Prior knowledge:
The chain is of the alpha/beta class. It has helices at residues 14-25, 42-52, 80-104, 156-163, 167-172, 180-190; strands at 2-8, 30-36, 56-58, 110-114, 118-120, 133-137, 152-154, 194-198, 202-204.
Amino acid sequence: MKIAVLVYGRLNKCAEHYNNIIDAIGKANNIDFFLSSDNSNESLLNDFINIYKPISYNNNPIYYDNDLGKYPGKRCETQIHNMTCHLINKNRVFILFEEYMNSKNVIYDCVISLRVDCVFKNKFQINDLEYNKIYIPYGYDYVDNGINDQIAYGKVGVMRKYNSINPVDLLDKKLSIPHPESLHFANIKLHGLNIQRVDVKYYIDK
């Protein structure tokens, strides 16, 4: 299979996690990496470039005008800046991916969105993916009406909707509170995607 892996956010321990990520996705697959981080230090970025050999990447600082913290329902554990950067990085990396895909006329069987600080204990289940279905591991939902926002995968069209999350629109429509897992769940519902929970076991190693 031809698989695009869209990495977003911090690059901590990216070098030591590479082999684990490749093993979990499957060495037999043709895997292309894309990255959106925000101002990662030069050493980590060079590690990622040298080891993952991304097709395209963006490490520019993130600037934004919208204050997502002004909306009601904010929980004490929510870090508004980190959440905002998370969502922007997901948008940015999909734009990079789509620009490459369109310019080179490349077709991908699967798109995976993940953090590079995940350590996997088993393999992804990526055969026979269905249209309009998004595959998300069990766990890490954290709140009612929330869903794991760390890892997701599916067909290109599904992941376009997943990565193009518009938090201001969701919050203005009162479809979510300013909370990352809640916003992701609201975005998935807004787009009418079907959710398939999968048994991909992992933990975060920062």
